[in-house]
Amino acid sequence: MVVVACGATAGEEHCNPTALPTAEPQAVPGILNDLVGRHDPEAAAWLDDALATPPLPGTPEFMRLLAVAGRKLSASAQQGWPPSRIARAAILAASVHAAGVEAPARLATAFRRSDTAERVAILQSMMLLPDPARFVDLAADACRSSVQPVFEAIACDNRFPATHFAEPVFNQMVLKAVFTGAPLARVAGLPQRATAGLRRMAADFRDERRSSGWPVPPDLDFLLDLGKST
Amino acid sequence: MTKMFDPHIHMTSRTTDDYAAMRRAGIVAVTEPAFWLGQPRTHVGSFEDYFLSLIGWERFRASQFGIRHFCTLGLNPKEANNPDIVDGVLELVDLYLEKEGVVAVGEIGYDDMSPAEDDILARQVEMAKRHDLPVMIHTPHRDKKAGTRRTLDLLREAGMPPHLTLIDHNNEQTLEMVLESGCWAGHTIYPGSKMDEPRMVGLVQSFGPERIMVNSSADWGISDPLKVPKTVQAMRDAGIAEEAIETIVWRNPIAFYAQSGRLDPAELEIPLPVDQRLLFEGNTVLRGQAPAVDSPLTAEADG
Q: How crowded is residue B87: how many other Cβ atoms within 10 Å of its Cβ?
């Protein structure tokens, strides 16, 4: 078995898989399925079989597998990712690897055909996929979702935006987080990405709130304070 | 009763109860801008059916409650970011802009202010000029002030005449620059966001009624299709002159959309007779009820 070191959450049963160290693409599904096995060995064996020849993302076989993985794994009271999401991440890692250069188009199709939990799994798994920068358009598009769990799956607890988003996309995402009440404390890498442009947008928004007579969200002050230190 | 025109309301999301309540409150005409459905459409064909419903079924449905229904067609900024559909949708917009009841290109504008949105907005402004139609502009919720300025800059550079341009969703931060530009200024009165009735009263007291409009923008989200009559009441309670109120909720929307040549101001002065015996493609708004013909509903509203 490949060593699983879970960074800050090492030692916990269900760590955050995005904290995994970089692994070879072909090793990632196995690492993830080991995590599934800790929760449900039977489901892990089923998944291991299913991933022997991974279906290409977006195909009917893939969509079925993604859906069944959600049903097969019961919820867990433990912190971190639910087992169903870890299983889906394993499927995604294997299938995206198998898709080669077709992966971005195929993953976009899979995303379009997914329900909310499946979309969340795709977005949260992005940093575990081979060459994740290829999926930046799909990730940016997910920021436009008005389904809050989908928006938060990319904006929160996800290193993808800070690593791969261009500044205008990142800034819009941060402002939308303030708008929709997604806590900025959960936006990974925000302090490193706080720029003068983002500070200007935050200040304008604070002016707008004040002139409307509405309360200023506390996260706006948090954002403006972040700007000051850069 | 004051006659009202809601210049921006998404009736496809509303019920027949809403239509009836709007008519009772004095709303006799609406413009429904094409927009998104809360989640993005992923096929060009979905837009064709949507445009057809705006010029077809929805128009008929409104008429069944004594309300004249106009629409604007366009590709909204949120869906402008999907490269797989934009070219096909713009071809459809070009085609359907010629239909009866289409009074502007809209709602178009910025959401994320992405390069794709720049491109789609500019292309639709060109289309409006080619079709001799006004444009109905959505301003972004996030980074609103900068977004409104960028919109005005783009429109000026594209040579879009200000008198043919309605900039919507204004607030205290944007109204002044919009009026200075010579464009018309819409205000969306929402429960809990955008603009509310007391603030709108304040804006009218500061800026007067010229080129000012109010709308409910009511859609599938929390919104209120009676916000125009409620704002009329708030203005009246604050002592704003009846003449100014009528300018804002009746004369201005008509003057703006009549520039399309597809809306006859004189015809709007005549109440639309209701005949619920009519069918649209074999379909009716009735579900077994007796059809209202010049119903008490309209008689009451006209009283």
A: 11
Q: Which of A146, A175, A213 sits opposite B142 (nearest CB)?
A: A175
SS3 B33: strand
**Environment class of residue B196 by beta-carbon count within 10 Å: exposed (0-12), middle (13-18) or buried (19+)?**
buried
A146: nearest CB among B38, B82, B144: B38
If phi over 0 gives left and psi between -120 and 50 gives alpha, with beta otherwise, what is residue B161?
Answer: beta
Residue of B nearest to A178 (CA): B142
User: For residue A220, which phi and psi values (nearest 5 degrees)?
Assistant: -70, -40
| A165-182 average pLDDT score | 96
CA distances from B243 to B8, B180, B208, B236, B250 (A): 22, 23, 11, 11, 10
Mean pLDDT of B39-67: 94
ipTM over 0.85: no
Q: Check if the beta carbon of residue A129 is closer than 8 Å to that of residue A144.
A: no
Whether B256 and B134 have beta carbons less than 8 Å apart is answered as: yes
The answer to whether B42 contacts chain A (CB < 8 Å) is yes
Dihedral in degrees, nearest 10, Cα atoms B118, B123, B51, B213: 70
Neighboring chain B residues of A147 at a CB cutoff of 8 Å: 39
In order of A134, A155, A169, B163, the CA distances from A165 in angstroms are 11, 11, 6, 39
pLDDT at position B176 is 97
**DSSP-derived 3-state class of residue B256:** helix
Instruction: Kindly list the residues from chain B whose CB atom is less than 8 angstroms away from the CB atom of residue A140.
Output: 81
**Contact A221/B at CB under 8 A:** no
Q: Give the DSSP letter string of A10-69.
A: TT-TT--GGGSPP--TTTHHHHHHHHHHHH-HHHHHHHHHHTSSPPPTTSHHHHHHHHHH
> Encoding tokens for residue A124?
């949260």
* Residue pLDDT, tens place only, B180-190: 999 999 999 99
CATH class entry, domain B4-284: alpha beta
CB-CB contact of B52 with B40 (8 Å): no
A25-63: pLDDT as tens digits: 889 999 999 999 999 999 999 999 999 999 999 999 999
Q: Is B261 left (phi over 0), alpha (psi -120 to 50) or beta?
A: left
Predicted TM-score (pTM) of the model is 0.83
d(CA B188, CA B141): 12
Question: What residues pair up with B275 in beta bridges, in sequence order?
Answer: B293
A11: left (phi over 0), alpha (psi -120 to 50) or beta: left
- Residue B221 has which token pair? 């989200």
Cβ separation A112–B142 shorter than 8 A: no
Q: Is A165 on the interface with B (CB under 8 A)?
A: no
